[in-house]
Amino acid sequence: MDPSLVVEKKGPVAVITLNRPEVMNSFNFAMLRALKDAVNAVRFDPETRVVIVTGAGEKAFCSGADLKERATYSEIQVREFIFTIRNLFTAIESLPQPVIAAVNGVALGGGTELTLACDIRYASETATMGLTETRLAIIPGAGGTQRLPRLVGRGRAKELIFTGRRVSAADALAIGLVNRVLPPGELLDGCLALASEICECGPVAVAQAKYAINAGLETDIGTGLAIESNAYWITIPTQDRLEGLAAFREKRKPVYKGK
Predict the structure, then answer these.
(1) pTM over 0.90
(2) Which residues does the annotation mark as catalytic?
(3) Where does residue 27 fall: left (phi above 0), alpha (psi -120 to 50 degrees), or beta otherwise?
(4) Cα–Cα 20 to 30 A to 120, which of 74, 105, 158, 186?
């Protein structure tokens, strides 16, 4: 794998680390392709129950596109870059496993867009976030104009995108952009603790709950309830559902196998 990305397995948790700290973990083509390969591998790994995405070092989660490299691109290459990153973040959003962003520092432009493609965001007290593209006379191109308003509301999203404003971790928490803020030294442990809590639940159930939430929010309530119903039916014939009932009856912790 390209050295710009590090994947470490911690039991059922895959920790993916953007590894270009010398350039604030900014995205170039090599990193995007390595991340795509890692995401494809995780998708079909039954042993991986939760994914954590973070950045190397203490300064940055990801500062977005590598602008020095971007300056050398032709218009066609810029189009290819945006197409690649947009599809990659959609692939991350559609992973069956929950994905937690451990925002350990600066997350700007594509960095914030990556967190928006994750299911849950925990941030360091030192984190700074923002969709700053309009300050470069472009717009968010990896889903930011769509995912931010769905998360924080249309008015707040427009204010942040129109101004290119950066927000602190505390402000991000206040507007619902992140779920929790932790001291820098406790961030990854906090994410691992959350992942452990998720891993106590049935893998099929968690995957179906994620699908029902994501798909249902994009439609009307009636269709959403039908999506939920169909997702529920998938859990009924599973061994895990019977194990959950047996464990409850026997007053023990269930042992789920994702079957």
Answers:
(1) yes
(2) 65, 110, 113, 133
(3) beta
(4) 158
